[in-house]
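Reopening this one. Same input as before:
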Amino acid sequence: MGMGTEDHSLAQMALQVDESDGVCVEVVLLMGGAQLRGRLVSEERYRELMADTVRRGNAAPAAEAFDLLTKEAAQRRAERQHLRETQPHVPLETPEYLYLVEDPDWARTWCVPLGSVDAWSMTALTVDLPDV
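Same output, byte for byte:
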């Protein structure tokens, strides 16, 4: 059945990562007996990585379509930030997907439906604070 409604921690971490690329969360996900290990990234970063992959291949002209998806993800991120700032009492919508960059080579990206995660473990959480 996927993750129960009693544990929103993974969804909350996905929201934190989507809010700031400086939040680094490394996880292990179990889904239908398969194990996936990597770092959660924002949807915007995921889309950028996809566009970069297309650009490196022989279908580079198609990268523009992927750039558009990146731009749309950036707009959604800005809208959520605006909501947080103007209506902090309104809870954010639970994300439907997790975006993951697989370790160790960072070349493989995954889009995982949150509801398909049977179990998970956090292996690291760090925050890169901007220099003041």
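So the earlier flakiness isn't reproducible anymore. For the record, Confidence is low (pLDDT under 50) at residues 1-6.
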